[in-house]
Amino acid sequence: MRKLIYGMNLSLDGYIAAPGDDIGWSVPSDELFQFWSDRLRATDLTLYGRKLWQTMSSYWPTGDQRPDATPAEIEYARRWRDMSKVVFSSTIDKVDWNTRLVTGDAVAEITRLKAEDGGPMDIGGATLAGAAMRAGLVDEYVLATAPVLVGGGTPFFTALDNWVNLNLVETRTFPCGVLLTRYETRR
Asked: What sections of the sequence does the record tag as coiled-coil (predicted)?
C-alpha cells in the first residue's frame, strides 16, 4: 500500500497562494528548494489538481534549459519531467511529460492508486488534497511555513467533515526563516 503525502509552501496565515493566485512570496531559498527536490526524488508518483498542474507544467518542462538555471533547478526539472504524474481535471483534455489525465472520480482513483504496490505519492493542489483529506486518504502533511502574512487567497487546508488527529514527526527551521513541520495521520 502506498503512502499519500500532502505538502506545500504556505504563508503563516495558512495560504498556498495569495489573492489572484499570487505565489511570489513563496520562492524557496536554496536550502528549501533542495528539501523539495529531495522529496521529489523519493516520490514515485505525483497527483495534481488542474491549477497546480498548469503552474508546474508552464515552467518545469524547460526549467533546465533556462540560461540562469541553477544546478539544483536543472536536476529538479529533469526529475519532474521524467517522473510519473496524474492530473485530475474535467476541464483540460491533454497532458504531457509522463502524465496521465483522470477526468472521473478523483477519490476513487486515489483510493485505487494507494492500494497499489509502490513508493510514496505526493498530492498537490488545495482542492484535490481537500477531497483526499475528507476521504481520509492523506497519510502525511508537510508544511513549509513562510514568515509572511498574505491576508487571504487559497488555503492549504479546506473544510473537513471530521477532525484529523496527527502526530508531529519533524520540525526544522531553514536559514530563510521558513519553518518546516511534518505530521503523520494518527490512525
From this structure: none
